[in-house]
């Protein structure tokens, strides 16, 4: 049985905030409480409040502010000799590094966070940090390395009845199944994630699960109408909670659904919107996926094949440097489809 979802990253004076609090509310409250803690000369409270500020900035796409905030939180935690708070700050920094495409740094920070969490007896930050490592590997396409870790974390979350973490693990495993072609298994896992998130009132997790279901309804069943309906429901949540990254991924997925339906002009516009959103928040993976969708849409709309070839070659190089193997494979398939053999080999 799962309890109501909670947000363990909202700590100290901010524990009254809900997992569904809008990020602008979290940021405003976090900054106010942070200033109070600084005036009171309490480094432990500065660290805890600074964590919420860092996470709000990160999820709003303010990556430079998020970077400053997690580092300040870590320094305060170290001053207070608070091992748990140090681990949470490193978790935030590692998550930000992954979001910005700095995967080696993400591995390092999240690994340190997991070690500190274990040393300090904070099983929640340890679990979140291991989950972050698993997600980093999944995003890079290294399913063999992190598949077992995802399953382990899912089992732990189920044992504790921790709804939010269970939903996260289910969605990660579902995405791997979807990307390797097992649509039936992926759909069942996304469906379970959506049900648990809805019962636990985890709106963020529910929005991500709806996005996953929409993807499969479109790719497997060709059910464009139902897919767009689910994405509209998820978008409403993203806007209510100011989930900038989730909203951009929603727009990118809407582009995917429209592209598959042959509605290339609409897809082009959605990919362009998502690309602008990802660039604003410095999220290179989302940017690359949007660039790929946009290139394919423009090719369908009659773009010069040589321009398409050049775009895909550049995108492939970007992904090779970033270590995003699964997305690189997607570009290779696009090159095979749209680029004449002589162009693709050049």
Architecture overview:
With 346 residues, this protein is an all-alpha fold. The protein has a domain of 99 residues. The protein has 17 helices and no strands. Helix 9 packs antiparallel against helix 10. The longest helix is centred in the first third of the chain and has 18 residues. The relative contact order is 0.08.
Overview in brief:
This is Tetratricopeptide repeat protein. Helix content is 80%, strand content 0%.
- Tell me, rounded to a whole number, the average pLDDT: 93
Classify the secondary structure makeup into a structural class: mainly alpha
- Total count of helical runs of at least 4 residues: 17
Shape: globular
Strand content: under 5%
Helix-strand layout with pairing:
Elements lengths: L22 H18 L2 H17 L3 H17 L3 H17 L3 H17 L3 H17 L3 H18 L2 H17 L3 H17 L3 H17 L4 H18 L2 H17 L3 H17 L3 H17 L4 H18 L2 H14 L2 H5 L1
Helix pairs in contact: 1-2, 2-3, 2-4, 3-4, 4-5, 4-6, 5-6, 6-7, 6-8, 7-8, 8-9, 8-10, 9-10, 10-11, 10-12, 11-12, 12-13, 12-14, 13-14, 14-15, 14-16, 15-16
């Amino acid at each position: 049985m799962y309890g109501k979802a909670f947000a363990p990253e909202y700590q100290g004076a901010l524990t009254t905030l809900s997992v569904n609090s809008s990020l602008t509310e979290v940021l405003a409250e976090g900054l106010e409480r942070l200033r109070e803690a600084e005036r009171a000369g309490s480094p432990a409270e500065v660290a805890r409040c600074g964590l919420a500020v860092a996470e709000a900035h990160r999820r709003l796409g303010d990556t430079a502010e998020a970077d400053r905030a997690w580092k300040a939180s870590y320094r305060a935690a170290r001053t207070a000799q608070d091992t748990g708070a140090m681990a949470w700050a490193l978790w935030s920094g590692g998550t930000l590094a992954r979001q910005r495409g700095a995967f080696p740094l993400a591995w390092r920070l999240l690994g340190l966070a997991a070690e500190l969490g274990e040393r300090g007896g904070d099983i929640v930050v340890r679990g979140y940090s291991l989950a972050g490592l698993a997600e980093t590997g999944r995003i890079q396409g290294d399913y063999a390395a992190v598949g077992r870790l995802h399953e382990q974390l899912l089992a732990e979350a189920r044992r504790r009845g921790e709804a939010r973490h269970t939903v996260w693990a289910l969605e990660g495993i579902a995405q791997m199944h979807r990307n390797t072609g097992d649509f039936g298994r992926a759909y069942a896992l996304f469906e379970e994630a959506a049900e648990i998130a809805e019962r636990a009132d985890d709106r963020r997790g529910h929005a991500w699960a709806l996005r996953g279901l929409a993807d499969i309804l479109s790719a497997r069943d060709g059910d464009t109408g139902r897919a767009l309906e689910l994405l509209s429901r998820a978008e409403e949540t993203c806007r209510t909670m100011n989930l900038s990254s989730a909203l951009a991924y929603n727009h990118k997925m809407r582009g995917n659904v429209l592209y598959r339906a042959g509605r290339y002009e609409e897809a082009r516009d959605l990919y362009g919107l998502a690309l602008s959103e990802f660039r604003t928040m410095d999220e290179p993976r989302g940017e690359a996926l949007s660039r790929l969708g946009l290139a394919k849409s423009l090719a369908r709309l009659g773009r010069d094949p040589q321009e398409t070839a050049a775009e895909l070659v550049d995108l492939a190089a970007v992904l090779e440097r970033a270590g995003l193997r699964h997305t690189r494979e997607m570009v290779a398939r696009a090159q095979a489809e749209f680029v004449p053999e002589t162009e693709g080999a050049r």
